[in-house]
């Protein structure tokens, strides 16, 4: 019984440490002037970006208009229930909101954050782009930073928090701690 209590306490402690890393990274991340802005894919409802995806795209527009990037890379394939890929929906949203076609680069063949970033890195290499700002929800930034490092992307980060979906955002923060621990364990297993 004592061993079970110790193991449980250890797992809880690890989750608390991971959660603190997620929160600290989320609120300390600052975008810096870069060659590209990468918007990580998110759900599309039919042909329309979900509220989380719209916020990410709007953040990319803001960063672009502030002169923090020369290109915007939209990323994400076509998932179940989506009429078009996340990248296509993202591009349409950007074009409707004043971004010119020559600025938008697309990766519509990815189905995970890892693929988003690996494919974005290929696009960056093709265009000789060296640095990027990665845009996602705040809760996702810490894990995205680890994946970006694995993909070889020199990045800074900018996160969104969609206040009208407060509970979903909080759930996202809570879900990220075990996801982050899983990534750490996977990395340790590969050493």
UniProtKB/TrEMBL annotation:
**Residue ranges constituting the DUF218 domain according to the UniProt record:** 35-155
Give the source's domain of life in one word.
Bacteria
Q: Which InterPro entries match?
A: Cell_Envelope_Assoc, DUF218, Rossmann-like_a/b/a_fold
Q: What is this protein called?
A: DUF218 domain-containing protein
Entry's Gene Ontology BP terms:
Gram-negative-bacterium-type cell wall biogenesis; peptidoglycan metabolic process
A GO cellular component term found in this entry reads: plasma membrane
């Amino acid at each position: 019984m004592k061993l079970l209590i110790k193991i449980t306490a250890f797992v809880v402690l690890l989750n608390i440490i991971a959660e603190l890393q997620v929160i600290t990274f989320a609120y300390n991340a600052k975008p810096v002037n870069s060659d590209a802005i990468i918007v990580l894919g998110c759900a599309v409802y039919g042909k329309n970006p979900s509220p989380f995806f719209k916020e990410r795209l709007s953040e990319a527009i803001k960063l672009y208009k502030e002169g923090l990037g020369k290109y915007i890379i939209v990323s994400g394939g076509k998932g179940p229930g989506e009429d078009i890929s996340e990248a296509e929906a993202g591009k349409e949203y950007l074009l409707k909101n004043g971004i010119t076609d020559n600025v938008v680069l697309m990766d519509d063949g990815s189905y995970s954050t890892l693929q988003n970033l690996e494919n974005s890195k290929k696009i960056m290499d093709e265009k000789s782009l060296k640095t990027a700002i990665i845009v996602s929800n705040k809760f996702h930034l810490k894990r995205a930073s680890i994946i970006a490092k694995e993909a070889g992307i020199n990045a800074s980060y900018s996160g969104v928090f969609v206040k009208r979906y407060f509970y979903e955002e909080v759930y996202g923060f809570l879900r990220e701690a075990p996801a982050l621990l899983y990534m750490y364990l996977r990395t340790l297993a590969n050493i």
